[in-house]
């Protein structure tokens, strides 16, 4: 008749009390289980979505802060540019896997044709005609292996990427899309010519005149294909067209050493200023430069973003901030976040309620059994074993109650979260967003909600058993301490 | 000398006043004898018994078991291995059967107990006058006298030499009282136990080998 056997006998010989305790634990267990289920599911969504958003980050003006500035603050503000040295300093931080900073310029050509998607109708295509000298996007590269290829935006299918010497020396080499090469019968090793046309514009008529032009001869060293599959959306829908246009732009993008872009931009800038005195004066007054970089950093891990941001912010000039891919999570995951918060509060309240209610129930039961505990103590039983006996009685019932509520609470959580999300979806808010290449995503609140799933996985089961049993343990030990601290004479005589 | 109390003091603090229940009380007991401590309600006899059985501790003084201070032995360990206690209100576990109640101290003690504890418990109950079919009943289905017999069997279950009883016949009729007294005599005289009974009954005191009277915390010999 040791304390373990006594514990089990205590459950079977007092069936009524055991059932009451089971009912209390089951009901409260459902609250805890439901809250943990929702928390786990929202936690999973956060990690899945942030994983999909990627590890990219950039430095840009904090537009929220900018918008909040008063007119007088704006006037006194002296904006600093992000220097190449600062970009490199940030790039050397341990969180950064690789980074690039580049300029982009647009050129046309007399000798090669722009690639046009056959699915785009003429009207759309016309909208995309930016003028004769802007058919092709020249994207500068400082990171020789090309970040877009490393990040699977594109894939090199023929030839090679740049060497560091080509990047540093600004060699006239290019990696172009395979479709563009096929359109113009170009192969690796061939050369093609682009035209850097300089125009002046009449601001009254909006018409432009060609002032001068120079040829840009580039050798094809590699061919790439875009990696992102076209989204299968409704035919001719607006988003479908947007995707097609983006794809078409990418087919007409050429990767070249950044020095080539700088040279061409500088030529165009200087020639434009020579031809337009009014513009030259304005630019001189405002100390404008043609050189402007938007850096992109890819971090080692999603978890590094917070630490990276903290470390980078003090290095930045006033009004600049770190923009990361995961920033968008807050915008698109509104319903999930509000449910996560609700689940957190429910969990806290449920745990406190469980400690109080179970504690009171156990205390009431113990009051009836105070004499019995006194008897064990008078017989010389160790206090720890008396506590152990009662813990066995309560914990065995608790395990049964918690196991039952594990399933019912999970089911309850599915129903509640479905209802909440539907209600929240109707009140969906739209956020103004800025576009950042490599960072902005087409993930929507619907994608986020699709990835929300209340499941019965091992972390939920362990989490619930952990929280549930510890809660019951605390609510049992507190009243028990009150009883066993008494000496047996006080209980029995 | 199996048990000896030396200069025991026990009091309640009443403001700045101390209300003494026991004052410099000393007493000693031998094996093989049946002792009674006689006293009216509030005389301090139950307090003395609770100090001798280590259910409570004195403010000063010491209780020696076979020459060792029970404080040094450890109150819990002393109760577990050296003393059997019988209460006026039996103090049996109501949800257990008679035999289960006897088995409880057998699982707690560190004394050597035969392996087949259940048979020992049944035999013990039978010796005290509880037959097997009654031994398997829940104790609250037994009469007061039967319950007190179960309590005596429980006190004997750990094979201790010292039995302390607080008004063991207080809830019983005269006939049953005499049966219980006979059991105590037998335990002392035939089995060499030291049996100490606290009572207010002169009848019981007269049947004991030695009796003490406790009045206002002061112990005297009872003739």
From TrEMBL, chain A:
Pfam families: FtsX, MacB_PCD. InterPro entries: ABC3_permease_C, MacB_PCD, Macrolide_Exporter_MacB. The keyword Transmembrane applies. Residues 151-250 form the MacB-like periplasmic core domain. It comes from the Bacteria. It is a multi-pass membrane protein. This is ABC transporter permease YclI. It comes from Oceanobacillus neutriphilus. The keyword Transmembrane applies.
UniProtKB/TrEMBL annotation, chain B:
One of its GO terms (molecular function) is ATP binding. The keyword Ligase does not apply. It holds the Pfam family ABC_tran. Residues 3-223 form the ABC transporter domain. Gene3D superfamilies: P-loop containing nucleotide triphosphate hydrolases. InterPro entries: AAA+_ATPase (IPR003593), ABC_transporter-like_ATP-bd (IPR003439), ABC_transporter-like_CS (IPR017871), MacB-like_ATP-bd (IPR017911), P-loop_NTPase (IPR027417). Keywords: ATP-binding, Nucleotide-binding, Transport. PROSITE patterns: ABC_TRANSPORTER_1 (PS00211), ABC_TRANSPORTER_2 (PS50893). Belongs to the ABC transporter superfamily. This is ABC transporter ATP-binding protein. It comes from Oceanobacillus neutriphilus.
């Amino acid at each position: 008749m040791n304390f373990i056997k006594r514990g089990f006998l205590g459950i079977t010989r007092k069936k009524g009390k055991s059932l009451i305790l089971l009912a209390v634990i089951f009901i409260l267990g459902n609250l805890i289980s439901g809250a943990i289920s929702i928390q786990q599911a929202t936690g999973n969504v956060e990690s899945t979505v942030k994983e999909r958003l990627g590890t990219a980050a950039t430095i840009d003006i904090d537009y929220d802060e900018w918008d909040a500035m008063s007119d007088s603050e704006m006037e006194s503000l002296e904006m600093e540019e992000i220097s190449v040295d600062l970009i490199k300093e940030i790039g050397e931080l341990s969180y950064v896997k690789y980074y690039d900073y580049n300029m982009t310029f647009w050129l046309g050509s007399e000798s090669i044709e722009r690639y046009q998607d056959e699915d785009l109708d003429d009207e759309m295509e016309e909208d995309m005609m930016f003028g004769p000298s802007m058919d092709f996007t020249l994207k500068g590269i400082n990171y020789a292996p090309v970040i877009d290829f490393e990040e699977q935006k594109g894939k090199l299918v023929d030839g090679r990427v740049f060497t560091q010497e080509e990047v540093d020396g600004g060699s006239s080499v290019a990696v172009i899309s395979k479709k563009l090469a096929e359109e113009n019968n170009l192969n690796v090793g061939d050369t093609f010519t682009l035209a850097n046309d300089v125009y002046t514009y009449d601001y009254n008529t909006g018409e432009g005149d060609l002032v001068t032009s120079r040829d840009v001869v580039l050798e094809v060293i590699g061919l790439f294909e875009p990696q992102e599959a076209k989204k299968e959306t409704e035919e001719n829908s607006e988003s479908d067209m947007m995707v097609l246009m983006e794809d078409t732009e990418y087919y007409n993008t050429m990767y070249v050493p950044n020095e080539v872009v700088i040279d061409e931009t500088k030529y165009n800038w200087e020639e434009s200023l020579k031809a337009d005195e009014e513009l030259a004066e304005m630019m001189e007054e405002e100390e404008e430069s043609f050189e402007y970089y938007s850096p992109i950093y890819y971090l080692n891990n999603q978890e590094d973003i917070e630490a990276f941001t903290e470390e980078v912010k003090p290095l930045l000039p006033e009004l600049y901030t770190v923009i990361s891919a995961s920033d968008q999570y807050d915008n698109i995951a509104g319903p999930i976040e509000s449910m996560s918060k609700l689940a957190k509060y429910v969990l806290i309240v449920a745990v406190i309620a469980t400690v109080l209610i179970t504690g009171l129930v156990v205390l009431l039961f113990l009051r009836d059994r105070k004499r019995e505990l006194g008897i064990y103590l008078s017989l010389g039983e160790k206090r720890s074993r008396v506590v152990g006996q009662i813990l066995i009685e309560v914990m065995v019932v608790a395990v049964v109650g918690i196991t039952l509520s594990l399933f019912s609470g999970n089911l309850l959580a599915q129903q509640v979260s479905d209802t909440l999300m539907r209600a929240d979806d109707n009140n969906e808010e739209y956020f103004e967003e800025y576009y950042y290449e490599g960072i902005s995503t087409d993930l929507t609140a619907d994608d986020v909600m699709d990835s929300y799933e209340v499941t019965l996985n091992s972390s939920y089961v362990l989490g619930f058993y952990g929280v549930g049993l510890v809660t019951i343990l605390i609510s049992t030990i507190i009243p028990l301490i009150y009883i066993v601290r008494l000496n047996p004479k006080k209980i029995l005589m | 000398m199996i048990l000896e109390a030396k200069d025991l003091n026990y009091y309640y603090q009443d403001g700045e006043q101390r209300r003494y229940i026991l004052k410099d009380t000393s007493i000693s007991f031998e094996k093989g004898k049946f002792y009674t401590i006689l006293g009216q309600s509030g005389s301090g006899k139950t307090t003395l018994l609770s100090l001798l059985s280590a259910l409570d501790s004195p403010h000063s003084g010491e209780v020696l078991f076979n020459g060792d201070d029970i404080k040094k032995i450890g109150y819990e360990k002393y109760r577990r291995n050296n003393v059997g206690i019988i209460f006026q209100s039996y103090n049996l576990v109501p949800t257990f059967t008679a035999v289960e109640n006897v088995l409880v101290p057998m699982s707690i003690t560190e004394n050597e107990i035969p392996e087949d504890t259940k048979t020992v418990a049944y035999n013990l109950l039978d010796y005290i006058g509880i037959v097997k079919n009654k031994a398997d009943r829940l104790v609250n289905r037994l009469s007061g006298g039967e319950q007190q017999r179960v309590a005596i069997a429980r006190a004997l279950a750990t094979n201790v030499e010292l039995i302390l009883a607080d008004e063991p016949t207080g809830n019983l009729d005269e006939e049953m009282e005499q049966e219980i007294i006979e059991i105590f005599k037998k335990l002392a005289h035939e089995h060499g136990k030291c049996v100490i009974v606290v009572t207010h009954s002169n009848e019981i005191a007269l049947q004991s080998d030695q009796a003490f009277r406790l009045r206002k915390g002061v112990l005297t010999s009872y003739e």
